[in-house]
Design brief:
This is Ribbon-helix-helix protein, copG family. It comes from Micromonospora viridifaciens. InterPro entries: Ribbon_hlx_hlx. The chain is about 50% helix and about 0% strand. Helix 3 crosses helix 4. With about 110 residues, it is mainly α. It has a domain of about 50 residues. The chain is elongated, with a radius of gyration of 30 Å.
Length: about 110
């Protein structure tokens, strides 16, 4: 439980507390900018989702995450991001085979000495 011994217990004590409150003037715009700049960066808000999947899929995710050196949560998040990117209108993903085929056709750049 909390310690209530410092809180007013009568209307008179509450009035006395309120009458003794003092307020500082608001900071100048320059000081406000300094205070805001000194605050730590806001953390990205993460939403928790519950996900049901078959055990064999969970084991495959665990294996893939371990191979990638990330947590299962991070691996699932990255997989979702990849699919969303692939579905966006301004991206045209290609298969790994097509990418490798295109890379093998590139000629090395010759640099002047």
């Amino acid at each position: 439980m909390s310690d209530n011994q410092h809180l007013p217990s009568t209307p008179e004590e509450a009035a006395a507390l309120m009458n003794n409150l003092t307020f500082e003037p608001p900071p100048t715009p320059e000081r406000e900018a300094e205070l805001l700049a000194s605050l730590p960066e806001a953390a990205e808000v993460m939403v928790v989702r519950s996900l049901r999947m078959p055990i064999d899929l969970d084991e495959a995710v665990a294996a893939a995450a371990k191979e990638a050196g990330v947590t299962k949560t991070a691996w699932i998040r990255q997989a979702i991001e990849i699919v969303l990117t692939m579905q966006s209108d301004d991206d045209q993903p290609i298969s790994r085979a097509d990418a490798l085929r295109a890379l093998t056709l590139l000629r090395p750049v010759r640099r002047a000495a």
